[in-house]
Write a structure and sequence with these properties.
CATH superfamily of one domain in chain A: RNA polymerase II/Efflux pump adaptor protein, barrel-sandwich hybrid domain
Shape of chain B: globular
Structural class of chain B: alpha+beta
Strand content of chain A: 25-35%
Largest sheet of chain A: 5 strands, mixed, barrel
Chains: A alpha+beta (298), B alpha+beta (981), C alpha+beta (249)
Number of domains of chain B: 5
Radius of gyration of chain A: 22 Å
Helix content of chain B: 25-40%
CATH topology of one domain in chain A: OB fold (Dihydrolipoamide Acetyltransferase, E2P)
Largest sheet of chain B: 5 strands, parallel
Number of strands of chain A: 17
Oligomer: heterotrimer
CATH architecture of one domain in chain A: Beta Barrel
CATH class of one domain in chain A: Mainly Beta
Structural class of chain A: alpha+beta
Strand order of the largest sheet of chain B: 5-4-3-6-7
Radius of gyration of chain B: 33 Å
Number of helices of chain A: 4
Number of strands of chain B: 38
Shape of chain A: flat
Distance between the termini of chain B: 60 Å
Helix content of chain A: 10-25%
Chain lengths: 298, 981, 249
């Protein structure tokens, strides 16, 4: 079997910056240590600190003002959770009455035994037996979708899955992007028209899976995993294409949400799935998607 | 201001490394011309529009760009104040620096002379003149191209400033740029590129106003030699040499020509203890004394022994071609030597020179050899240094240079020329003139002796100098103490003074007060730099070359009697047994009560009727000094002797009138003792305060082999010399006393002195503590503190000491080990040279003293050699060779055969026997001294035996010997006087 | 000509043609990798450095208990970074030293109170070493930290300085100047606050010169800071614009 490898020369590098062209109105960006404004009358929020009676930025990013609260949002950082965020997470440790999960935030997050729906009804009491059974429900390495329930003092996130739409993830692909690229919206679960479902975790973890039938979805409170079912090839190809599109958008620093993914998917159809890994193809998709998004905005 | 273009340069070295370096090109480099209207000039204009040099080649104002070869070869022309408006490219400067650091130094001096209008143009970093090295281009070609590019650029650049209407209206001629190069290839290319170009000699000869400048041109060839046959084998190329060295086929070392035999020399090679002998003109192959050469070892069967023949080249004339006859003569000589060598079994490794790694040519003093043909411009120059071959030069001023001491430099030595080619540099003055002769001594010993420059003098304190109240406040006031100085008569640079007084507790307070020179010489200024460069004051007979200007040395710093002066004081509290109880250092103001000579001080001490404070103080000092000295001796300090003499010099003619041996009195040793004590105290202090950068002086223990001649000489006399430690040596020297020979002990000590190593300055951080030892003084640590007026090392020590006691601030250089090491290096060199120069001056004056005189003097045999006696004359501190056998004396060989006087040398006890007369070492003899002036450059003192009388050998005493005086017997002709080393 | 080599020609130019106070040409780029949280590439003359930042993430092991952020650095020099091949890219004494120094300087800038029980990993790889390796590494690490969105008091930048024989201070020492034997002083500073986070000298400076040399290095720091700041802003504009400022507008 012959393998076609594409090796591009450093000289033919794609200039990603070209995507940033034709912007009329540029927001002011701040860098660490830069003075935002005098402290008087304002409250300092994330990404700022007070020194010498001035509010200064501590990260590089854009200023955000909510009434008197001043904060600077970095364009890229670890995930900073907010209550109500949808996240995709991976279990890294089973502990007493809780799971430790990775949500790409500064500290590991926890999923309390009490925050999950156990099989057998919502109002069931948690028994000692359940504690011993924890590993049966969720083991190290398992992926889940969840929502941020609470934020502890030091910043540790507490998750819950007590909704039918959350729970253990079954067959699909995980894609990691920078959290900032995931657009905060009402809906983070999408069944794309192309035939794949995506969960756009606010933490930058994105789950792509085959679209299931309505009745099947999350039916059992989220601990079932059907690994024996064979996903047909064309569905797998679609999933792969969606993955590559998402990565392409991420590479181009375009925001990720259903429309952008949908557009990118459509633009990608003129290429084979594997071609989507090539730099100039990525650039092309990015450019086309950007253009369509801008058109749509206007 | 900065163009951020990046260039890479690749160099290869050793195991081939690719080195990439950044190279910034700039647009802010000015052209330095006052014509220019474009450049941003950050400098004062170096190049002017004025042009008064008339050249028949270029009849308009022009600037000169010099090629590297012109700078290297024609530096003497450049040093003449003729050429102006010269552009020196950094390409050229770098090449010069790489090729010859001495010429680099000289060109820099010219550049710094603002009046000369030399401008350094940084073409390597100018955006329009940078030349990137092209593939397959050699570094040389690239540099040549860079020079052409820069010349072209300059020409165009200046042209563009001279096209304006106002310029044309001014009616001035357009200034152009001319390239001077001696490289034919470069010249041809330059012509092709429309660059004005000429060779250095064409150009210099075109200067009608300066005809004599042509004398200074360096010549590669002389017209009449072009067709001459090669007389020397070719040299290997540098690459072949490196290859040969790598494969161990060749050896490398520095060549030392023999002083006695112009056809012989020695190459010091690491692996061979005695070096490798080189014999014969072809083997010497154009090496000049000092050159680093590559040699090939001859097969063992061809090894030879150093001939003990003194062979001097006979006069030749410039237009002579080497005659068959002479070659023949040389061959005979070689054969003789080889034959002798076979018998002698003293054969040493012998080799021949196959290439020159590095020339160490310098400027040579000497005289012109009178020419047979009148009106010729070609001449032969005879250097004063016998190790240097004669040099062929071309000059039109021969008539005026006759009987003058002149300086000549070697340009090159082609294969077909018997002698190296050189050119005249300058004249020193008439032969035999005291000033000229002193100048020669100073030059030959590299003593900086020009007048202090205006800049240096500008850092002197303004006169009249007064002590301000602030000065008093900062210093301890010692004006009331009875301080006095003791020095040799006629001393004007008094740098030390002493006092001693009784304290209430019965102890004694002793103070040594040293002139505070560092107060006047501030670090880093021109005065300081000049003093550091000179390193030491040089004393010649009747002349002193000061390290610091006279205002300081003889006035402000000199601790003369009755005047308030600044001093650096070292004060001890001692008990009566000279044990130090306390010591302190501080700056002070003193007023010396009296400046005395040693003699006066001695009289004062001895005269018991004197009971003033000074006398009391001196007596205390004297007593303490004796205790100190004894203690030192018990520790193993050596009492060494070297004959020292003083000349009484006529104040007008500067000619020596009288010779006297320096007398040593108690007071000499008294002053010396306290100076030693001060030096040691200070050394301990600064070494403790500055463990890394203190300036100290050490005297290494000589290797035991050094003592061999001494031990042998003593053994023949029945004495054993122990050299294990300084102490045992000192004791065994004390035992060498012979009742019948009062001078014996002194002679043994003189011999001991010669076994010693040189004492040197060093930096404390560079050596281990154990190595600080001063062998001669038996002191674990030592430095020089007491003579800052005449030694720079003392100034450094003063500064360190001042910094350590908070009397003065430190500065960066003072605490830097590296720069201090460099300074020490220079000081050691200057110190050595000053000593040599002083001895040379004594030698010169000895000759002058004996001019036209003939004296019989008492002397002692110092060594018995195979063919001679080494005789020491205590009265003059003079040492010379009395030849017994002349059969090794080439030219006079057959005459000797007729002689009936035969000396037999005995290996066993080192004696010479002739009939019933036996010469042992240390035997007294009487010799007759006279001056042989047959060679104007090399006058010689001749020793002839008077007593014991040997018929047919000794000179006849009494009236009949008068005849001999006028015409010394030919057998003595080539005896030479050896000055002690 | 023994001893120290003259670093400054009489015409006032350094060996590579710079004037005493001039920095080398600086190029930098942020976000060069996708995998780490922050990354940067920095060129200062021919010294080229890559830096990657992972974190902040949960500190591993016992360190969890401490309330301060753990800054874990690694300094490594590619075997091909010097003209003579290096045998060990990291772990030698020099690398260990640099690693410590990086940690020291970075901890002065990172707002550690915001990251309890967390760890930040900073990996620095010198691709080509041409002098001031530490300084360039620190500058690259700063950019990578900013790229990772980690809160800093301000830019922490480093610059080197030396002293010519004629006692003129020189900024940003290249390798050739380093090996030619000039003394080297490295300062890592918070330029706006004018605080020095780290200072190292290759040999002793005299007290008279120390101040001017430090001031020269500080001036270099300020200049580098301005260059980095401009680069950061440009980078932000680029990525922000691509997404049409996403959530901002």
């Amino acid at each position: 079997m012959s393998v076609n490898a594409t090796i591009s020369l450093a000289l033919d590098r794609v200039d990603w910056n070209a995507l940033a062209g034709n912007q009329e109105k540029l927001p002011r960006v701040f860098t660490p240590g830069e003075v935002l404004m005098p402290e008087a009358g304002f409250m300092r929020g994330h990404g700022t600190f007070v020194e010498d009676e001035n509010i200064k930025a501590s990260v590089a990013g854009v200023i955000e003002k909510v009434n008197k609260l001043i904060s600077v949002r970095p364009l890229k950082s670890r995930y900073v959770g907010e209550i109500g965020d949808v996240v995709v997470a991976r279990v890294i440790e089973v502990q007493q009455k809780r799971w430790r999960v990775d949500t790409n935030s500064r500290l590991d997050s926890v999923l309390l035994l009490s925050s999950v729906n156990l099989p057998g009804g919502e109002l069931r009491r948690r028994s000692a037996e359940d504690e011993q059974m924890m590993r049966q429900y969720l083991d190290e390495g398992d992926l889940i979708s969840a929502e941020v329930q609470n934020i502890f003092e030091e910043g540790t996130l507490s998750l819950y899955t007590r909704s039918l739409k959350y729970g253990k993830l079954s067959q699909g692909i995980l894609v990691k992007v920078f959290p900032a690229l995931v657009k905060r919206r009402k809906m983070h679960f999408h069944n794309l028209s192309c035939g794949a479902s995506v969960i756009l975790g606010n933490n930058g973890y994105i789950w792509i899976s085959p679209t299931k039938n309505e009745d099947q979805e999350g039916g059992e409170g989220g601990f079932a995993q059907n690994l024996s079912e064979v996903v047909p090839r064309h569905e797998r190809e679609i999933i792969a294409r969606v993955r590559n599109c998402i990565l392409a958008l991420a590479k181009c620093k375009l925001m990720l949400y259903d429309t952008s993914i949908q557009y990118a998917f459509e633009e990608s159809l003129k290429y084979d799935v594997h071609e989507l890994l090539q730099q100039h193809v990525i650039y092309d998709i990015g450019e086309q998607t950007q253009a369509r998004l801008r058109d749509a905005d206007e | 201001m900065q163009t951020l273009r990046e260039f890479t340069r690749k160099t290869k070295r050793g195991n081939i490394l690719k080195i990439v370096r950044e190279h910034y090109l700039r647009d802010d480099i000015g052209c330095g011309s006052d014509i220019c209207q474009h450049c941003f000039q950050n400098d004062v204009y170096a190049l002017t529009a004025d042009h008064d040099l008339q050249s028949s080649l270029f009849k308009y104002p022009h600037y000169l760009v010099l090629d590297t070869n012109v700078v290297l070869d024609q530096i003497d022309v450049l040093e003449e104040d003729v050429l102006r408006n010269v552009i020196i490219l950094t390409t050229v400067l770098n090449e010069v620096k790489h090729k010859s650091s001495s010429i680099y130094k000289r060109i820099n001096e010219i550049i710094h002379d603002r009046r000369r209008n030399f401008y350094v143009f940084v073409n390597e970093h100018h955006k329009d003149t940078y030349a990137d090295r092209e593939p397959d281009e050699t570094a040389n070609d690239r540099n040549d191209r860079a020079i052409r590019i820069a010349t072209k650029w300059y020409d165009n650049h200046l042209k563009s400033s001279q096209v304006s209407k106002s310029f044309q209206r001014s009616g001035r001629q357009v200034t152009r740029v001319v390239l001077l190069t001696d490289d034919a290839g470069n010249r041809a290319k330059a012509e092709a590129e429309d660059i004005l170009v000429a060779t250095a000699s064409e150009y210099v000869k075109s200067l009608s106003d300066h005809p004599l400048l042509a004398d200074k041109l360096s010549h590669k060839t002389f017209a009449n030699e072009k067709q001459a046959l090669p007389q020397y084998p070719p040299h290997l190329s540098l690459r072949e040499i490196l290859e040969g060295l790598k494969q161990k086929k060749l050896l490398q070392g520095s060549f030392q020509a023999s002083r006695e035999n112009y056809l012989e020399g020695n190459v010091n090679v690491e692996q061979y203890e005695k070096g490798i002998l080189i014999q014969g003109r072809e083997s010497l192959n154009r090496a000049v004394d000092g050159d680093i050469v590559a040699i090939e070892l001859l097969p063992q069967s061809e090894w030879s022994a150093p001939s003990e023949i003194v062979l001097e080249e006979k006069n030749v004339y410039a237009d002579d071609l080497p005659s068959e006859e002479r070659t023949e003569e040389e061959k005979v000589m070689l054969q003789q030597v080889r034959a002798a060598a076979v018998v002698d079994a003293e054969r040493t490794p012998t080799g021949r020179i196959v290439g020159i790694v590095r020339r160490k040519w310098r400027q040579y003093c000497g005289i012109l050899q009178p020419s047979l043909i009148e009106d010729t411009s070609r001449h032969i120059f005879v250097p004063a240094d016998r190790k240097i071959p004669r040099i062929r030069i071309e000059t039109r001023q021969a008539a005026t240079l006759q009987n003058q001491r002149i300086i000549v430099t070697i340009d090159n030595w082609p294969r077909n020329s018997r002698y190296p080619h050189g050119h005249f540099v300058r004249s020193l003055g008439p032969l035999g003139d005291m000033n000229t002769e002193n100048e020669v001594i100073l030059l030959e010993h590299d003593v900086p002796h020009c007048k202090f420059s205006e800049e240096v003098l500008s850092f002197l304190p303004k006169m009249p100098w007064t002590i301000t109240p602030e000065d008093y406040a900062k210093r301890v006031d010692l004006r009331d103490l009875y301080i006095c100085s003791v020095d040799p008569p006629g001393c004007t640079d008094i740098d030390d003074a002493l006092h001693c007084r009784e304290l209430e507790n019965g102890n004694l307070e002793v103070g040594v007060h040293i002139a505070d020179v560092s107060h006047f010489i501030r670090p880093g200024n021109a005065l300081d730099k000049e003093a550091a460069a000179r390193g030491t004051t040089v004393y010649l007979v009747g002349k002193r070359i000061d390290m610091v200007p006279e205002l300081l040395s003889s006035n402000l710093c000199s601790l003369v009697g009755g005047v308030e002066r600044f001093a650096f004081s070292c004060v001890w509290e001692m008990d009566k047994e000279a044990n130090i109880i306390k010591k302190r250092f501080h700056k002070s103001v003193i007023k010396s009560k009296r400046a005395m000579t040693y003699e006066e001080a001695q009289v004062l001490i001895d005269d018991s009727t004197q009971d003033n404070e000074i006398a009391k103080s001196l007596r205390h000092l004297n007593r303490l000094a004796k205790i100190l000295k004894k203690r030192r001796m018990d520790n193993g300090a050596l009492v060494l002797a070297s004959p020292e003499i003083r000349f009484q010099v006529d104040s007008e003619t500067h000619e020596p009138l009288e010779v006297e041996v320096k007398q040593l009195r108690d007071t000499n040793s008294m002053v010396e003792e306290f100076m030693l004590l001060a030096n040691i105290s200070v050394a301990e202090h600064i070494a403790a305060e500055f463990s890394e950068c203190a300036v100290l002086r050490r005297h290494p223990k000589p290797p035991t082999t050094n003592f061999d001649p001494l031990i042998k000489a003593a053994r023949y006399q029945g004495f054993e010399i122990e050299t294990e430690t300084g102490l045992s040596l000192s004791h065994s020297l004390d035992k060498c006393v012979k009742a019948d020979n009062p001078y014996f002990n002194t002679m043994i000590r003189i011999l001991t002195t010669r076994c010693m190593m040189q004492a040197v300055y060093f930096i404390s951080g560079s050596l281990q503590k154990e190595e600080f030892f001063h062998y001669g003084l038996a002191a674990p640590i030592y430095t020089h503190f007491t003579s800052p007026i005449r030694r720079y090392s003392d100034i450094m020590v003063h500064r360190l000491l001042a910094a350590s006691i908070g009397a003065d601030s430190t500065y960066a250089q003072l605490l830097e080990r590296k720069s201090n090491e460099e300074l020490c290096h220079n000081l050691n060199y200057r110190h050595k040279m000053a000593q040599y120069a002083g001895r040379a001056s004594v030698g010169l004056n000895t000759h002058l003293f004996f001019r036209g005189k003939e004296e019989d003097e008492e002397g002692y045999v110092l060594f018995v050699r195979k063919n001679a006696l080494q005789v020491l004359i205590p009265k003059y501190g003079l040492e010379g060779t009395l030849y017994l056998k002349t059969d090794k004396d080439g030219k006079d060989g057959h005459e000797r055969a007729k002689s009936t006087v035969v000396f037999t040398f005995s290996e066993e006890d080192h004696t010479q026997r002739c009939g019933n007369v036996v010469f042992h070492s240390f035997d007294p003899v009487t010799v007759r001294l006279s001056l042989d002036s047959s060679n104007v450059q090399h006058e010689k003192l001749v020793f002839r035996l008077v007593k014991p009388y040997i018929k047919g050998f000794s000179v006849e005493t009494g009236s009949e010997s008068a005849a001999d005086v006028a015409a010394p017997p030919p057998t003595k002709k080539t005896k030479k006087n050896q000055k002690k080393k | 000509m023994a001893g120290r080599f003259e670093l400054l020609s009489e015409q006032g130019l350094r060996l590579d043609g710079r004037r005493p106070h001039e920095l080398r040409h600086i190029k930098c780029k942020m976000g060069v990798f996708e995998q780490p949280d922050g990354s940067a590439y920095m060129e200062q003359g021919n010294t080229k450095v890559l830096a990657a930042v992972y974190g902040p993430h949960q500190a591993k092991g016992k360190k969890t208990e401490t309330n301060d952020v753990i800054i874990n650095c690694q300094y490594s020099q590619a075997t091909f970074s010097t003209s003579e091949r290096k045998n060990r890219p990291r772990g030698d004494r020099k690398s260990q030293e640099f690693k410590m120094y990086l940690q020291q300087a970075l901890s002065a800038a990172i707002k550690s109170e915001l990251y309890p029980r967390s760890q930040i990993d900073v990996y620095v790889e010198v691709l080509q070493a041409d002098g001031a390796n530490y300084a360039v590494s620190l500058n690259a690490a700063t950019l990578a930290l900013i790229d990772a969105g980690i809160c800093l008091n301000e830019f922490v930048v480093a610059c080197t300085a030396s002293l010519s024989k004629s006692n003129i201070p020189l900024t940003d020492i290249s390798n050739i100047e380093e090996v030619s034997g000039g003394p080297k002083l490295t300062v890592a500073a918070l330029p706006t606050a004018e605080k020095i986070a780290f200072l190292e000298m290759s040999e002793r400076f005299h007290i008279d010169h120390l101040e001017t040399v430090i001031e020269t290095a500080m001036a270099g720091c300020r200049e580098i800071r301005d260059i980095l700041e401009a680069a950061v802003k440009e980078h932000l504009i680029h990525i922000g614009s691509a997404a049409d400022w996403g959530r901002v507008c």
